[in-house]
UniProtKB/TrEMBL annotation:
InterPro entries with a match to the protein in the record: Rpa12/Rpb9/Rpc10/TFS, Znf_TFIIS
Annotated protein name in UniProt: TFIIS-type domain-containing protein
The keyword Methyltransferase belongs to this UniProt entry's keyword annotation: no
Organism of this sequence: marine metagenome
TFIIS-type domain boundaries: 128-170
Length: 172
């Protein structure tokens, strides 16, 4: 149990709240125990896999709570203290939920890139000459490259653009 006490102390030093620290550590332990049960991992700190899972989850939560860490999550600590985050669920949160503003920007960037890709696909040669093997529609874009020697047929790289199908294939 020494490792669990060490983790509790680290959280206690960070949060200045023994009760909250104990609750966070218990949630980490319960989360890793559930995960281990589902994946046939022995629940024992002598088992390196269990120990590493416990430490990794502890670090993830700790670094999100530590405002000076590389994550720079400045809000979650106060949300926990104000009980706006359910402690029992903190271990189940993904990185996107632990720091939503950061990931909101990334998601917006991804949407912009997807839009640009979609615009690019519209500028490619659109044809009904190819039939999509997945959705069986004839709405495709394609480009052609000479991928082998000059005396062999050119290769067509085709993408279905029918209603978000997006299936890609090539034909010689």
């Amino acid at each position: 149990m020494e490792i669990r006490d060490t983790i509790k102390n680290k959280f206690s030093n960070l949060l200045n709240d023994n009760k909250l620290s104990t609750s966070i550590e218990l949630n980490i332990f319960d989360f890793i125990t559930d995960y281990s049960n589902k994946n046939n991992i022995s629940i024992d700190f002598d088992n390196n896999i269990f120990k590493l899972l416990y430490i990794a989850k502890s670090r993830q939560i700790y670094h999100n709570l530590d405002e000076s860490s590389y994550i720079k999550n400045l809000k979650i600590k106060n949300l926990i203290k104000k009980k706006k985050i359910i402690l029992e669920k903190i271990c189940k949160y993904e990185h996107k939920e632990l720091k939503p503003l950061k990931w909101k920007k990334f998601n917006k960037d991804i949407e912009i890139l997807n839009s640009e890709i979609s615009d690019f696909n519209k500028e490619l040669n659109t044809t009904d000459q190819f039939k999509c093997p997945k959705c069986k529609k004839n709405k495709c874009v394609y480009y052609q490259l000479q991928t082998r020697s000059a005396d062999e047929a050119i290769t067509s790289f085709i993408t279905c653009i029918y209603d978000g199908c997006g299936f890609t294939w090539k034909e010689n």
